[in-house]
Amino acid sequence: MRILLVEDDRLLGDGIQAGLAGMGFAVDWVRDGEAALAALTAESFTALVLDLGLPRRDGMGVLSALRAGGKDLPVLVLTARDGVADKVGALDCGADDYVVKPFDLDELAARLRALIRRASGRAEACLRHGDIVLDPAGRTVTRGGQPVALTGREFDLLHMLLAGAGRVLTRRILEERLYAWGEIVESNALEVHVHHLRRKLGSELIRTVRGVGYLVGEAPL
Fold first, then answer.
1. Domains plus CATH for the chain?
2. Rounded Cα–Cα distance for residues 136 and 148 (Å)
3. Is pLDDT above 90 for 163?
4. Would 97 disulfide with which of 76, 125, 136, 153, CB 3.0-4.6 Å?
5. Whose CA is closest to 116, among 167, 49, 183, 181?
């Protein structure tokens, strides 16, 4: 799950980025509103964590531009502004959740998972496909009730494929959401991860749509 963090406080931003990365999120971090809009235009993200008090363009301006552009990306506002009017204004402007600083990092991660889950139309926290069960919060996978050991990247890839079951996910989308800025990505890294998942969870789980990407389940007619 690739997250865009927009926070101008360097110490806080560094802590959030490191903390969420430790929980399995790929986090890109920008420090002003214009940089946020540029990133949102050029890249694909799973959710946005947005401060309101930003240089160059404030958070409400970013949020308004995002929604005016028709993007339905889940947005969690993370701010020191605790007034009722601020909360109402942000939510009415298109925010999906509102968290006041100071905050608990575990709660922030749980709220992000909930936003992403709702955005994909799911009510249940765990993802299921046949006898495979993936728990995003615990970052565990079982097959037939037995635990399956996956690397962090394998888990994240499986999470995306199960969340998008029935849809072909292109190589570009998968790579964009797996890797944050600055990470070195080998040209065959995605194929290697898919190979390992097939070996651990069954060769029939992930289908290759040649020249397009990968698919779990049956694509709609």
1. 2-119 (3.40.50.2300), 127-216 (1.10.10.10)
2. 14
3. no
4. 76
5. 49
pLDDT (0 to 100) of residue 95: 96
Q: Determine the Cα–Cα distance for residues 221 and 205; give it in Å rounded to an integer.
A: 19
Token output for 133: 């069960």
Q: For residues 200 and 158, what is the distance between their CA atoms, to the nearest angstrom?
A: 11
pLDDT surpassing 60 at residue 203? yes
Largest separation between any pair of C-alpha atoms in the chain: 53
pTM of the model: 0.73
Q: Give the pLDDT confidence of 55-85 residue by residue, as tens digits.
A: 999 999 999 999 999 888 999 999 999 999 9
Task: Return the beta strands (E) in the chain as ranges.
Answer: 2-6, 26-30, 47-50, 75-79, 97-100, 127-129, 132-135, 140-143, 146-147, 169-170, 206-209, 213-216
- Mind listing the pLDDT tens digit for each residue in 6-32? 999 999 999 999 999 888 888 999 999
How far apart (Å, rounded) are the C-alpha atoms in residues 101 and 103? 5
Q: CB-side exposure of 215: number of CA atoms within 13 Å?
A: 13
